[in-house]
Amino acid sequence: MTDPVALVGQSLTAETRAEFEARVDDQAAYLEDVIERGDLDNEDFALGLELEVYAVDDDGALARLPEAVFEACNAELGLHNAEVNTDPDPFTAEGIAAQARSLEERWDRARAAAREHGLDLVLDAMWTTPPATEGSYDYLADTDRRDGTDLPSNMRPVPRYWAIDRHCLDLADGSVPFDVPGADLSFPTILFESLATSIQPHVQIPETEQFPRYHDLATRTMGPVLALAVNSPFLPGDLYDDVDPERVLAETHHELRIAAFEQSVNHTDPPKVRVPDDLDDPTAVVDHVVDDPLLAPFLEEWVEDTDDGFAGEFWEFDHKRGTFWRWLRGVIGGEPVDGAGDRQSIRIEYRPIPTQPSIRDVVGFQCLVGGLLRGLVAADHPLGTLDWADAERCFYSAAANGLDAEFAWITADGERTSDPETVFAEVFEYARRGLAEQGVDDATADRYLDPLEARWEARTTPSQWKIDRARAELAEGADLEAALRTVQEEYVRLSRERDTFADWL
Q1: Alpha-carbon separation of residue 368 from 34, 141, 206, 453 (angstroms)
Q2: Rounded CA gap, 403 and 411, in Å?
């Protein structure tokens, strides 16, 4: 069966569900054996990265990307979205340099492809200037009727995306609510998720037996790391209700991407997008996916050009893992990394970080995450004793309040603290220790961590910069929509002119 609309209906049948779940169970048993045999163990750590961006026209308005652009980058959920990925490299100074070089080259190539069509790509976490031809709501809510099925007009025409959209809509009784400070909306599609973009560092863990320790420590770092990264405090101005603009600035979340993603697809019980549970043992990375609520199942034979290598042994499981939307998750598979091992691997996909203003900032967070996890484990740091519920509260506080969050941390001396001075001193100390453990020289560590430390020292993140600039525009007499347009224009200009966000301060 190849008709894409027919596949949407077939995905949601009881027969497909039963067959899909049977295959997932079989494949999960296979993967548990792989893990228990140590077949995912490797020689060393490795790093990789995913970077999501969006397109604008010459006036800075959101724009749809033509298919030809995706010869230079990957497509994503919305017609305006693109993704640039790196292949993994060993976690060394040379590997970090290779990651930065590859990301720069692929980013330049993607921008050049977009410019051939009069468009450009933006390193930003949420678009705020509506498309030139329609309002933001109409763009996100528009649907086309095809063979009796309403499908999102501005979603990439991929049957898997369509099936997820229709399944979520069914679970939400036909309308998906989105409620954030200043805006109470409802959509006939989940496409409002495509308001936001992110980066996802990947960290290959060489010893499978140690994976739960790294995973659970990563969960406890998400709050402070997100607080440094926040970059999406505003929706497009035309999505706000008729409310006091100062109230919006005072109450908005510093990271609206968290709310956009969670509210678009969290219609199962338990919700799918959330802080991950701790892992009792390495095979729990498989069990948690199996136990996750099922959404829009697909079968391998419906898809052309499926992987005939290692990942092809567990295609349906990997498809379900693709909707295991925790803010970090374990990923099994991937090609061997020359210099870090000759086997497939297990890695952490660290998902809460919004897209950053520059490529150097993006690589900085890749180094921060990899270094911090490596350093905490190398030092046998007691952060893992922090209660999971406290780590969860810290994460959502960071999403709402940025650097003003209520932090939760266990110090190297085993003391509980909420003092941000202590928290960030240890975050940077152990990130640098982890980089040193991997043989990364001080110059490389300084290049990528100094700009992030400058954010903390100035108590200014990209989201705080946007809020401050919007407040200044309101003080000059602009309305909210005009203020956000001006802020966005200045953000894009500085993003293209400056090497790091720290250079804006």
Answers
A1: 30, 37, 19, 10
A2: 18
Q: What is the CATH number of the domain that holds 216?
A: 3.30.590.20
Count structural domains, the chain: 1
Burial of 294 (0-12, 13-18, 19+ CB in 10 A): middle
pTM: 0.97
List CB contacts of 268: < 8 A, sequence separation 6 or more: 171, 293, 295
Coil, strand or helix: which one is 324? coil
pLDDT per residue, tens digit, the chain (505 aa), is 568 888 999 999 999 999 999 999 999 999 999 999 999 999 999 999 999 999 999 999 999 999 999 999 999 999 999 999 999 999 999 999 999 999 999 999 999 999 999 999 999 999 999 999 999 999 999 999 988 889 999 999 999 999 999 999 999 999 999 999 999 999 999 999 999 999 999 999 999 999 999 999 999 999 999 999 999 999 999 999 999 999 999 999 999 999 999 999 999 999 999 999 999 999 999 999 999 999 999 999 998 777 767 888 999 999 999 999 999 999 999 889 999 999 999 999 999 999 999 999 999 999 999 999 999 999 999 999 999 999 999 999 999 999 999 999 999 999 999 999 999 999 999 999 999 999 999 999 999 999 999 999 999 999 999 999 999 999 999 999 999 999 999 999 999 999 999 999 9
What is the residue range of 410's domain? 4-504
The single residue listed with the structure tokens 């419906």 is 302
